[in-house]
Please model this.
Amino acid sequence: MHLLFILAALTYGAASFAYGLDPDAPDSASRSQVARQTTARQRRALALLVFAALLHFCTIGAQCVRGEHPFESVFLATSLGALITVIGYCALTLARPVHALGGVVAAVGLLGLAVGVMFGATSVHDPLPAPVQSLATAHIGLATAGLAGFTLAAAVAGLYLVAERRLRLRQWKPRPGAMSLAGLERLHYQIVLLVTPVFTLAIVTGVLWTLRAGGISSMGARWVEILMAVAAWLASVGVLVLRVGFGLRGRRMAALTLLAFVLTLLVIVWYGVRS
Model:
């Protein structure tokens, strides 16, 4: 398992480097030559990222063989969520040219992998009681998938804010295959549209899990988790409502998505501290 981890981590690092590599083209190069060089470089980077995801998947499989199931620990679930994020990005970039996010996604995959391997073995808890086992699995699975999707939405929102600011400062330099601001805004909305129902189901199963485990009196300090989760859900729903109902778009929607993502990360950190 350690060998798989080392190979996956090194491949993630190589993918980050490949996405960040942007050598200057010679002055004599034509626009078509520059475009071909850029496309070839992006394909190599994507191939490295796909290979890293495959090694990441094998590492999680090796952990399962050792008895470390992804849903038994917030750290193991974080590793699985990072893998889903990478896979989602690889699938997304085949249809939409968002290569600028590749280096960020590779870093997310590496971080999730490291957290899962470093803390997974020491944070696996005893199995939950049978009456709530199915609810617990559903809640953690939905929350993991929702976080993976929302990570992509936040990354697109951050890219939109950076591109929009550079455009306002007249520092925008179009690159071959890059998406327009309108394309980024539309992609951001589509991802949030898919993720919000997943978060909704995660909240529902989480509440039912709490109630079946002992009722409101057993919540204790978990009210903080629920409060932050509801705040993140409201922020994601707000993106949809404000866009469709009031026509608000652009920077405000991107900033609201980043706020929701930060709140969601706080939930994960809180679980990790309590583990």
Remarks:
- The chain has a mean pLDDT of 76.
- The chain has two domains: 1-124, 127-275.
